[in-house]
Amino acid sequence: MTTSESPSVDGTNGPGPDVSAADVTCSHPSSPSVAQPTRRTVLLGGAALAAAAGSAGTAAASVGTGTVAAPQGQAPGLASRSAWILGRASYGVTPEMIQDLNARGIQDWLDWQLVPDSIDDSDLAVHLTPFDWIDQSVVEMWNHPTKSGRVIGYEARALRLIRATHSKRQLFERIVEFWTDHFNVYGSADDLWLLKIVDDREVVRQHAFGKFRDLLQASAKSPGMLEYLDNATNVVGAPQENYAREVLELHTLGVDGPYTEADVRELARCFTGWTYWRFIESPTQYGEFRYRPDRHDTGAKSVLGIDIPAGGDLSDAETVLDHLANHPSTIDFVTTKLAKWLLGYEPPAAAVDAAKATWVATDGDIRKIVRTLLSPRFLQQTAPWREPKLKRPLHWVASLHRTTGITMGDPVGAVLSLASLGHTSFDWHAPNGYPDIEEAWSSLLIWRWNYAASFSQGLEVTLNHTITDLRALLGTVPMTGWAAHLSQLMTGGTMSREDVSDIQAYLDGIGVPSDEAVAEAFELVASSPSFGRY
After folding, report:
1. Are residues 124 and 54 in the same domain?
2. What residues are paired with 303 via a beta bridge?
3. Same domain (yes/no): 257, 155
4. What is the rounded CA–CA span in Å between residue 439 and residue 201?
5. Is 307 helix (H, G, I), strand (E, B) or coil?
6. What is the percentage of the chain residues whose pLDDT exceeds 70?
7. Is residue 199 domain-shared with residue 314, that is, in the same domain?
8. Looking at the domain assignment, is residue 417 inside a domain?
9. Does residue 483 sit in the same domain as residue 413?
10. pLDDT digits 0-9 by tens, 359-382
């Protein structure tokens, strides 16, 4: 029995076939009694939580005691608390991470993670060998001898999942994901299959821990961004406003920022002539940024009170971008968004204020802003064990593989699974990026249950493990201790007492440590409310 037949979180039948309660609860030679948890009650513990989240105004208000690691908001023990903190800065807590943290201490561990180049990531290199285009230009990828642009594009999505799963530079990868959504570029159309790959490498990854001004300027000159938001066709006499609008609304000031429609039009004029070399224009420069003076509006302009004299050039827009990079509204908008990403859906106001002060003092040094947000007092105030966030699908899949050590035999195929979960990298069509709110993901839990079932039963075609591999992770632990053991293995011990108890009671009802029981154990832990949060 797989969870592909389970009901959806709103109580209706999901995308799979209609089934009865008897189908969902499963039948064993030693079925649990009525008083014991069934598969349905264990799974729907998370579904009920998600349904509550959808009706609540905020995610924090929806979190019940069934998801916390200690009763009534009581702080967990030191080891469990460290695991919660690691969970916010990574894609899943592993024994190796806990060892690193114990050896360094949480603050030194965070400092270490903030200098990713200092971290030996050679183990990741083994997983990168299939991607021979990883450092290539658009021209080189276009001329790849064996792979089409679309194939490389799918591989790039798999690469994003592999890095999240296997890289030791976990905090860096979390921040990369944040900026990927903040400066979203849809990568599944025409030239964008390849342009987004370069954007990811030379804009997002290169500047993820740098100065915000440099990141903003690099994004503005990204051929992927210029193509995606139509600035490649922005010319004097017929200004295209899409990119200018999103720079103000999404990249800097925010939707409530102090700008007018006149500012949007004037900024679009500043960006006239910003384009990129298309293949038909120059096969050797294809995919590179290009400024065309003949298409630039050289008239006088005024944006946000900044007067730009006539006769200008590329510097017209650069001047405005520099102003936007440290505008008070930009600082407030971006730091609040980053605080929500790292700390919780409702971060402490003091954390946002401190991050804004760091921004001003350091000229927008992202590394130092992140360090401020992850300072001890704000981690303590946030208390993720009281108000955990719901993992987005990429995060959830990566954590499932990270914590079990089960590699993806076909990472590109795994991307298709992420598509069913609604979270394929570089595939969000709107310019606002994948959302970081619980309501956006809580209605899609059935697809996670499907993946958990396939993963646990060895049915997922993109994987190459068997039940024997999963059984080995249980070691010599008796069946009566499987739930607690998997809590340590897969969450660093942060699973709620309720989840551990319910899963163990269900396994006790099976009674025999069969292959089916092994699969059930992993499936229910992976599908539990606790594993789904961080």
Report:
1. no
2. 306
3. yes
4. 31
5. strand
6. 85
7. yes
8. yes
9. yes
10. 999 999 999 999 999 998 898 888
3-state secondary structure of 140: helix
- Looking at the structure, tell me whether residues 318 and 426 fall in a common domain: no
pLDDT, position 462: 64
SS3 16: coil
- Measured in Å, how far apart are the chain's first and last C-alpha atoms? 28
Do 45 and 182 reside in the same domain of the chain?
A: no
Q: What is the DSSP string of 319-384?
A: HHHHHHHT-HHHHHHHHHHHHHHHT-SS--HHHHHHHHHHHHHHTSBHHHHHHHHTSHHHHHHH-T
Q: Return the SS3 of 67.
A: helix
Residue 533 lies in a domain: no
How high is the pLDDT of residue 383?
Answer: 80
User: How far apart are the C-alpha atoms of 119 and 126, rounded to whole Å?
Assistant: 16
Q: Over 60: is that where the pLDDT of 51 sits?
A: no
Coil, helix or strand for 441?
coil
Q: Are 132 and 206 in a shared domain?
A: yes
Helix, strand, coil content of the chain in percent (nearest 5): 60, 5, 40
Q: What is the pLDDT of residues 5-27, one digit of tens each?
A: 322 222 222 333 222 222 222 33
Rounded to 10°, the helix 467-474/482-491 angle is 100
Which phi and psi angles does 507 have, rounded to 5°? -65, -35
Phi, psi for residue 307 in degrees, rounded to 5: -90, 125
In a domain, 76, yes or no: no
Give the end of a domain, one of 325, 359, 383.
325
Q: Which of 325, 344, 378 is the last residue of a domain?
A: 325
Instruction: Record the tokens describing residue 319, joined without a space.
Output: 């001047």
**CA proximity to 372, closest of 399, 354, 387, 389:** 354
What pTM was estimated for this model as a whole? 0.88
Could you report the per-residue pLDDT of 102-134, keeping only the tens digit for each? 899 989 999 999 999 999 999 999 999 999 999
Overall domain count for the chain = 2
User: Residues, the chain, total?
Assistant: 534
Tell whether the model's pLDDT for residue 203 goes beyond 90. Answer: yes
Domain residue limits at 268: 114-325
Q: Which two tokens stand for residue 464?
A: 């190459």
Query: Which positions ≥6 away from 370 have C-beta within 8 Å?
Result: 114, 171, 175, 209, 338, 342
Q: Where are the beta strands (DSSP E) in 251-291?
A: 274-276, 289-291
165, two tokens: 């799963």
The DSSP secondary-structure symbol of 112 reads: H
